[in-house]
Specification:
With about 900 residues, this protein is α+β, with helices and mostly antiparallel strands. Helix content is about 55%, strand content about 15%. It is globular.
C-alpha cells in the first residue's frame, strides 16, 4: 500500500507542476500583450512596441521560453523513463525478447542486405563526372528491331563532327592482350579506345596520362593504359612503369595508370569482362576499318554538351542517321540510333530482378511484423492486470500506449542491430551468387547509408508491429481486467484480430511461395533443355599463339595438329578437338553466304548469314554432337582438298526446306563449299535461346585468322579438371609463349549462362522459405495461445464427455480457418506476381497449374501440422487438472 500511495503522490505533484507552468506562461503572455497594446496607442511601430514591452517586463519572453524548455526536458525525462522501463521489462522476459529480436533481425537483415545491393547497383550514381550527361549510343536496325549492334568508325566521326550535341564520342573495340614475362604468358582482357574515351567518362589517371588526341591519327605511337589492379599484381605498383613496354617485346608503351576505383562501363556488348589494358586505336585498326562505311565493329558512348537534353540530342542524332541513309543507301538504309543514359544501359537488364527481390524481402518483413504483433498481443493478455493497475493509479491511455510502443521500438532497434550484422554476412553471399551477373558489385557495401536505412526501417517496423497491440492495451476495460484473475478468457474481438493477422501472414506467404515456385519450375525447364552436346567429362581451354612464329596457315594448323595428337595420348583422355568459338562462350562470328541457285539480293542486309565455326575431325565426337545425315569433318578435309562444309539442322530447315542439302553448295565471298553433312543443333549462347543457322568449316581448310585463337576440348574418362595440369604442361612444352586461359569444365561453361536465373531463383526461394517458416511459427503460436486461453473451456467440455478426437478436430479446424482465408486472399496476389515475373520465366506460363495447385496444398499441410501440436496437447488434457489450475 505504501508503494501505491507514493505513486499517487508523485502523479499529483507532476500534474500540479504542469498546471503551474501553464498558468505562469499564460499570465506572462497576457502582461506582454497588454504592454504591447499600450505602446501601440502611444504611436510606436509594431516592432518598437514589442521591443519596449520586452524591456519593460524584464525579459518576459525569455522566462516563457525557459518554461517551454523545462517542459521539453520533462518530456525527455519521461522518454528516458519509458526506455528504462522497457529495457527492464524485456530483460525479465528473456525467451520472449530473444524470439522477437531474432525474428526481427531476420526480416530487417534481409531487407538491409538487399538494400545494400540495390543501393550499390541501382541508386548510386556512376562514379564519373556529371554521369547523367554520359549516354550510350545504340544502333537500331528499324526493320529487324535490333538494338545491340555496332557502328563504323566513320559513323562515329560524323556524330562528333556533324552535330553540336556531344563534347566527345568514346569508341570501344574489345580485344585480348597477351603479356609475357618470367612466369610465362598471361592473357588479360583489353580494349582499343580513342582519346575521347576517358574524357567522356570524366576520370583522371592515378599516374601518368591518358591518350592524347594526336594518338588517334594513323601512324601515331602505340600507347597503353593499364588498370590499377594489373599495375599492382604484375608490376608491383612500381611508378617507374610509365614509359616502359607493356611486356617484353611488346610494341605498346605504358603511358598511364587508371584510378583504383575506376569502373569501366562495360561497352563490350554481351560480356561483363572488365578490361585490364586500354590501347590506343590506330595500332590495330586496318585501312578498311578506318574507311569502310559498312565495317561495323565499334560500340560507343558520348558526353552531352552542357545544356543539351537527352530528347534534343536524340532528335539531332536521328536526323543525322537519316542523312547518312540518304547518302549511303547500300550500308545505312533502315538504320537509326538510340541514345540511352549510360547508367540505364548498365543496370537496366538487372533492375526488374532486383526490384522483385526488394518486394520479396518487404513481404518477409511484413510477415515478421504480423508475427510480432500476434506475439505482443499474446503477451499483453498476460499483462492485463499490470496495465489495469497502472491505469487505476492515474496512467492515461496515451501514456500506457506510448510505453508499450516504446517497448516495440526498443525490440525493433535491437533486431536492427543484429540485422546489420546478418546483412553484412548475407551481402557477401548475395554478391557471390550475383558475381558475373550483377554490374557494379564493387560498390556494394554495408556502409553508413545502409546503417541509416536499417535504423529508419527498425523504427518504422517497431511502430508497425507495435501500434495495434499498444492501442488495444490502452483501451483496456479496468473493471474486466481487475476482475479477471486468470480465468483464461479471451474476448471474441481479440481472437478475431489475431486470426486476421495470421490470415495476412498466410496471404503474403502464398504470394512469395508462388513467385519462388514459378522461378524454380522455370529454372528446372531451363536445365531440361538439350544443349546439343554432352558436357559431362569435357575440359575446355583457350589458346592464343603469338603472330611471331605463326604467320601462315600451315604453321597454325601444324601446331594444333601436334597439340591435339599429344593431348589425345594423355592418360585418361578419350578424344580431343578444337574449334574457333566454343558453344556458350559468348563468342560470335557471322558470315554472309548464298545457297546454290539463290540470286544475290539487292540490299546487303537481305543477304543470308550464319554463325561460322571451325571444327577438327574429332570435335563432334568429343562433344558428342550427333551427325544426323551425311558425314562430319574428316582427316581428308585438308588444304588442297575439295572445300566442304557441315551445316546444322536449323540452317537446313531455313534455306533447304523439304529438300536434301547434302551435295548442294554454299557460295561465299572467296570460295564455294560443298555440303557434306548435317549435325544436330547446338545452342550457341544460352539454353533459353534456340540455335540459329551454323556452318562448320574444316579446321585445316580455314585461314589462320579464323583458327589461330581457338578453344581446345578434351573428353576425359573421369574428372575433367584432373587433366588441367597435364594439358598446361603439353602446351608449355610445345611453346611456352602461348597462354592457356579460360580453363574450365564444360559443365561450368554452360552453368555460367544460367547464372542470372539461378541467382534470382535461389535468393527469392530463400526469402520464400524464411517467410514460410515465420508463417508456420505464427500459426503454431496463435493456436497454442488459443489453447492456453481456453484451458477452462476445454476442461469443461471434456468433463462433460467430449472425446479427445473431437477436441483435436475443434482446435485444428479453428487453426485452419485463418489459413484458408489467407490462402484465398493470397492467390490473386500470386497471379499478379506471376504476371510481373512473366519476362523471367522459361518453358512455363505465369499461371503454371503445378505451382498454383502445389502452393495451397503445401501451406495447408504445414498449417495442419502446426495446429496439430497444440491440438494434441489439448486432447490429452486432464479435465480435473485443467479446472483445478483455473
Amino acid at each position: 500500500m505504501g508503494l501505491i500511495t507514493e505513486v499517487k503522490e508523485r502523479l499529483c505533484a507532476l500534474v500540479h507542476r504542469a498546471r503551474e507552468d501553464r498558468e505562469l506562461e499564460e499570465e506572462l503572455r497576457f502582461h506582454l500583450e497588454m504592454e504591447v497594446e499600450a505602446n501601440l496607442r502611444r504611436g510606436m511601430s509594431a516592432a518598437e512596441a514589442r521591443r519596449r514591452a520586452v524591456l519593460r517586463l524584464g525579459g518576459v519572453t525569455q522566462v516563457a521560453e525557459a518554461t517551454r524548455a523545462a517542459r521539453g526536458l520533462r518530456w525527455l525525462d519521461q522518454l528516458g523513463q519509458d526506455l528504462r522501463y522497457a529495457l527492464r521489462t524485456l530483460r525479465k522476459a528473456p525467451a520472449f525478447t530473444a524470439t522477437a529480436v531474432l525474428t526481427l533481425a531476420l526480416g530487417i537483415g534481409a531487407n538491409s542486405a538487399i538494400f545494400s545491393i540495390v543501393d550499390g547497383v541501382l541508386i548510386r550514381p556512376l562514379p564519373y563526372e556529371d554521369p547523367d550527361r554520359v549516354v550510350r549510343l545504340v544502333p537500331l536496325r528499324v526493320q529487324h528491331g535490333e538494338t545491340d549492334g555496332t557502328f563504323s568508325y566513320l559513323d562515329l566521326q560524323d556524330l562528333r563532327a556533324r552535330t553540336d550535341i556531344f563534347e566527345g564520342v568514346a569508341m570501344y573495340d574489345p580485344t585480348e592482350v597477351v603479356l609475357h614475362g618470367e612466369d610465362g604468358a598471361v592473357r588479360v582482357e583489353g580494349a582499343f579506345v580513342n582519346a575521347d574515351y576517358f574524357r567522356v567518362l570524366g576520370v583522371r589517371p592515378a599516374l601518368g596520362r591518358f591518350f592524347l588526341p594526336e594518338e588517334d591519327e594513323p601512324g601515331s605511337a602505340r600507347s597503353a593504359v593499364i588498370s590499377h589492379a594489373l599495375w599492382q599484381s604484375r608490376f608491383g605498383g612500381d611508378p617507374g612503369v610509365i614509359g616502359r613496354p607493356l611486356s617484353p617485346g611488346s610494341s605498346y608503351t605504358i603511358v598511364g595508370i587508371a584510378p583504383a576505383d575506376f569502373e569501366d562501363p562495360g561497352l563490350n556488348r554481351g560480356s561483363r569482362n572488365v578490361p585490364q589494358v586500354w590501347a590506343s586505336t590506330p595500332a590495330y585498326w586496318t585501312r578498311d576499318q578506318w574507311a569502310e562505311r559498312g565495317m561495323r565493329f565499334l560500340t560507343a558512348a558520348a558526353r552531352l554538351r552542357e545544356g543539351v537534353t537527352l530528347e534534343s540530342a536524340q532528335a539531332a542524332a536521328s536526323t543525322l542517321m537519316r542523312r547518312l541513309a540518304a547518302e549511303y543507301p547500300d550500308s545505312h538504309a533502315g538504320w537509326d540510333i538510340r541514345l540511352v543514359r549510360l547508367k540505364d544501359r548498365i543496370v537496366g537488364p538487372v533492375r526488374p530482378a532486383l526490384l522483385a527481390l526488394s518486394v520479396a524481402v518487404g513481404l518477409v518483413l511484413l510477415i515478421a511484423c504480423a508475427n510480432l504483433a500476434n506475439l505482443l498481443l499474446a503477451r499483453a493478455a498476460g499483462r492485463r492486470r499490470e496495465l489495469a493497475v497502472r491505469a487505476a493509479l492515474g496512467g492515461s491511455r496515451g501514456r500506457i500506449a506510448r510505453q508499450l510502443l516504446t517497448e516495440s521500438v526498443v525490440l525493433a532497434l535491437l533486431g536492427g542491430v543484429l540485422g546489420v550484422f546478418l546483412a553484412w554476412l548475407a551481402r557477401d553471399v548475395i554478391v557471390a551468387l550475383g558475381a558475373g551477373q550483377l554490374p557494379r558489385l564493387a560498390g556494394v557495401d554495408v556502409d553508413a547509408r545502409v546503417v541509416a536505412f536499417t535504423a529508419g526501417l527498425s523504427v518504422l517496423t517497431g511502430v508497425l508491429f507495435g501500434i495495434a497491440p499498444s492501442l488495444r492495451a490502452a483501451r483496456l476495460d479496468l473493471n474486466d481486467a481487475l476482475k479477471a484473475e486468470g480465468h483464461g478468457t479471451a474476448s471474441r474481438r481479440r481472437v478475431r484480430f489475431r486470426a486476421a493477422l495470421v490470415a495476412v501472414e498466410v496471404a503474403l506467404t502464398v504470394v512469395l511461395l508462388a513467385g519462388a515456385g514459378l522461378l524454380v519450375r522455370s529454372l528446372a525447364s531451363l536445365y531440361a533443355v538439350n544443349p546439343g552436346l554432352e558436357a559431362d567429362g569435357v575440359l575446355t581451354f583457350r589458346l592464343s599463339p603469338p603472330y611471331n612464329g605463326y604467320e601462315t596457315d600451315d604453321r597454325v594448323h601444324a601446331f594444333y595438329d601436334r597439340l591435339l595428337e599429344r593431348l589425345a595420348a594423355l592418360p585418361g583422355v578419350e578424344s580431343a578437338g578444337a574449334t574457333n568459338i566454343l558453344p556458350f562462350s559468348g563468342g560470335y562470328w557471322r558470315f554472309p553466304f548464298l545457297p546454290e541457285g539463290m540470286p544475290m539480293p539487292e540490299r546487303r542486309e537481305d543477304v543470308p548469314g550464319a554463325e561460322i565455326r571451325t571444327a577438327t575431325p574429332e570435335l563432334f565426337a568429343t562433344l558428342r554432337t550427333p551427325v544426323l545425315r551425311g558425314r562430319g569433318i574428316e582427316e581428308r578435309d585438308r588444304a588442297g582438298a575439295t572445300p566442304v562444309v557441315v551445316i546444322n539442322q536449323a540452317l537446313a530447315d531455313a534455306y533447304f526446306p523439304g529438300e536434301d542439302p547434302i551435295g548442294r553448295r554454299l557460295q561465299f565471298q572467296d570460295d564455294t563449299r560443298l555440303i557434306v553433312g548435317i549435325v544436330a543443333d547446338v545452342r550457341q549462347f544460352e539454353l533459353a535461346q534456340p540455335a540459329g543457322p551454323v556452318m562448320y568449316f574444316p579446321f585445316a581448310q580455314s585461314p589462320s585468322w579464323l583458327t589461330s585463337n581457338a578453344y581446345v576440348v578434351l573428353r576425359a574418362a573421369g574428372d575433367p579438371m584432373a587433366l588441367a595440369a597435364d594439358a598446361r604442361a603439353v602446351v608449355r612444352d610445345l611453346d611456352p609463349r602461348i597462354p592457356v586461359s579460360e580453363l574450365r569444365a564444360m559443365d561450368d561453361v554452360i552453368g555460367a549462362t544460367v547464372a542470372a536465373p539461378r541467382f534470382r531463383t535461389t535468393v527469392l526461394s530463400l526469402f520464400a522459405a524464411l517467410a514460410f517458416t515465420l508463417a508456420a511459427i505464427g500459426i503454431y503460436g496463435v493456436v497454442a495461445h488459443g489453447v492456453a486461453e481456453r484451458t477452462r473451456e476445454i476442461g469443461i467440455r471434456m468433463a462433460l464427455g467430449a472425446r479427445a478426437g473431437e477436441v483435436l478436430g475443434m482446435v485444428v479446424r479453428q487453426g485452419l480457418r485463418p489459413v484458408l482465408v489467407g490462402t484465398a486472399l493470397g492467390l490473386p496476389g500470386a497471379l499478379a506476381a506471376g504476371r510481373l515475373l512473366r519476362s523471367m520465366l522459361f518453358g512455363i506460363g505465369p499461371t503454371d497449374p503445378v505451382t498454383f495447385l502445389g502452393v495451397p496444398l503445401l501451406v495447408g499441410l504445414v498449417a495442419v501440422l502446426a495446429s496439430s501440436l497444440p491440438a494434441r496437447r489439448a486432447a490429452r488434457m486432464d479435465p480435473v487438472s485443467a479446472l483445478r489450475v483455473e
